[in-house]
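Hi L., both proteins are below.
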Amino acid sequence: MSWIPSESVSGWLKGGFDLRLSHYDTPPDDRLAGPAEVDRMRQDDRFRFANVISGWADFAGQGTTAGWGDDSGLLMGSTTVRLGVGSATFLGYSLPVLRDIARPDEGTVVLTQTVGGRTGVPLPRTVRHPPYVRWQAPIVWTTLALTLRRDGSSEVGLVGASAFPRHWVYDSAGRLTAKSAVAELQKWLDHSFGPRTPWGAADSTALVIAAETAIERRLSAAIMAGRRGGPGRVGSRRPSEGRGRPEGRGRPEVRTLPAGHVLIRQGDRDQHVFLVLDGALDVLVDGTQVAEVGPGAVVGERAGLADGVRTAKVRARTRVRVARVPAEALDTSSLHELSLVHRREDSVPTVPGAGE
């Protein structure tokens, strides 16, 4: 499922969003009931497009056979433009679904499906490739690979995607499992058309990060809700991944940092917690990488616990955007719960003098 988070749009295009010529999307739920619910969300204009992949494989015969489910395909959203006291809705333009079935071994089948299109609203702009001016909006897409095995197991992965917007991946049970880590608006505007798309035989790999935990989702809601979540307790609102900058005690400070920047240094003392809004970061303990985190993750939770000594180093792998908030603005019991989930320092042996 692909959707537009707030704060993912900048520059001249942000003016159109501010004027409500287009709109950001509320983050989807972390559990979905199935394709029927996704279709209802599409009708309610809650996402830009969805890649629904389903299929089957029969390993019983002499040769493995496989095929696609009836509900497999593209669900393209619409764009509502608000003009004065009225509004107009433009249906998206859908491109043909691209499919492939591979059999890497006798016990495995991989079904790959690419879907995408563009908005029905034109987006005139200059670009970096001939003809250097484009009238139509850039192409959006995702490529999913569904792996089916003889033992009955299966998995789905995001193997390709447009640089924008945000892409979320759900498993067969409807659980959010992974996310694209980076939403690169300018790269999408400059390059996502013509031969630089899957329909021009050039897919683009996506940096995929595992989805955050349930406690991180609750904490992220409190971080971005600020006073609405109330100091000293976790709010019940959905996490935002950048829904805005509420005022009041605990109001987050949003920072943009370059790749390679050290956000947290092991051994330091600090009293701030960070919510990742965009980008990917590496977590290292004593110089050894123990985790990678992306949008929706909360790091630095031990700032409000015990003596507040940082137990890991957190370094930006890509350009990142984070929300920074004092630990005292959050519920201590929730921070403690998250620290027990992480316990990353236990995954590597202690090396005296490490952690710079």
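That was the first. Here is the second:
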Amino acid sequence: MKHSAIRAAIITVAVLVTASAAHAQVIPLWSQGKVAFGVYAPNENAPPPGAGGAGRAGGAGGGAPAAPRPKPLYTVGGAEKLAMNALYDYVFLNLEGAYDPDAVKAMSQGLRTAKATSRKTLIVRIPPISADGADATKARVKEIFDAGADGVTIPHIRDIDEARLALSFFAGVKADIWSPANPKGTKIAMLMLEDPTAITQRVAIANLPGISVLACGIGSLAQAIGGDRDAARAGAEAGTQQVLVETKRMKIANMLTANAKDVETRVKEGFLALLMQGAQADEAIKIGRAAAGR
């Protein structure tokens, strides 16, 4: 019996060590200043690459309008596949254009499969406050956390007042938000600055308590800047770097999209959450992990 008890204890310890090694939530990584790598949750109803004209109003020849795009689809099975990929620390579910609470439930359930290689973090982007109002946004923050997600992203924060309002939603639903001031927090509050006015107020916004991730939406910022395309891109890059300075100062994370060509540069610059998309996502993450010493 003694030998059996000892053997059982050894097995238990081994299992715990294995589980600990596989655990890869973003919060422990960010707390140590390490980079987390993630992917957009793929829309399973998206048209295949190269399917020109899908969802567009008419082709080059002025024919009949193309069929409308189908509703985005996210399933438990699709999430399970993501959960089994050891490269991913987090999954980013983009519901900004079409909010769907059932998608959050499906992704949360699938990512928690027993086949998961690690405990993937699920971060959900919702429509901006300016789209549907403060009440709807606050209700969605609660709904998403109740559905099992780990974080909520509120995009298109226009100024310091709207940033304060957005953060009040997290406090209002009593979410235990991780930040340097609350290192034991378990949930993620992410704000995105995608407007020139918000960029000018970046210092004051970064100083607000309760932010886990502050990011510059580089593509949207370029559109907001407008004018010459190259100048807009340069301005958006400058804004991205300015926000990065503030996130480093406050020791919070900064998320940015990346690819195989620029991920090594973004790691060296100090972004703590790099987000990939498409068929080359795994290749880009492998490069990024190598650059980050992971």
